[in-house]
Design a protein that fits this description.
Structural class: alpha+beta
Low-confidence stretches: none
CATH topology: HU Protein, Chain A
Number of helices: 3
Largest sheet: 3 strands, antiparallel
Radius of gyration: 19 Å
CATH architecture: Irregular
Strand content: 25-35%
Mean pLDDT: 95
Distance between the termini: 19 Å
CATH superfamily: IHF-like DNA-binding proteins
Strand order of the largest sheet: 1-2-5
C-alpha cells in the first residue's frame, strides 16, 4: 500500500474529500515525525509504539578495499507492533 492508496482508503472510510484525507494523513505522519525528532516516543494503543533507537559506534570495513573504517553512533527510528496488531496479522 502506498501513501496515495492510504489517502484514498481514509477518504472512503471516513467520507472525506481526497484533499481532507491527504491533509489528515500528512498531519498524522508529521506529528509522529516531530515527536520522534524531539526524542520522545509515540504510543498508539492497539497498534504499536514508534521510538528513537540508538545505534552504538562500531568498526566496519570498506568492501572494495578491505580497509577498516569507523562507523559513528547514530539515532534511528524504530517501531514495535502492539499486541492487537500482532494478533490481527497472525
Amino acid at each position: 500500500m502506498t501513501k496515495a492508496d492510504l489517502v484514498a482508503y481514509v477518504a472512503k472510510k471516513a467520507s472525506l474529500t481526497a484533499k481532507a484525507a491527504k491533509d489528515a494523513v500528512n498531519s498524522v505522519f508529521g506529528a509522529i515525525s516531530d515527536t520522534l525528532k524531539k526524542g520522545d516516543k509515540v504510543v498508539v494503543t492497539g497498534f504499536g509504539t514508534f521510538m528513537v533507537r540508538n545505534r552504538a559506534a562500531r568498526k566496519g570495513r570498506n568492501p572494495q578495499t578491505g580497509a577498516p573504517i569507523n562507523i559513528p553512533a547514530r539515532k534511528t527510528p524504530g517501531f514495535t507492533a502492539g499486541k492487537a496488531l500482532k494478533k490481527v496479522v497472525r
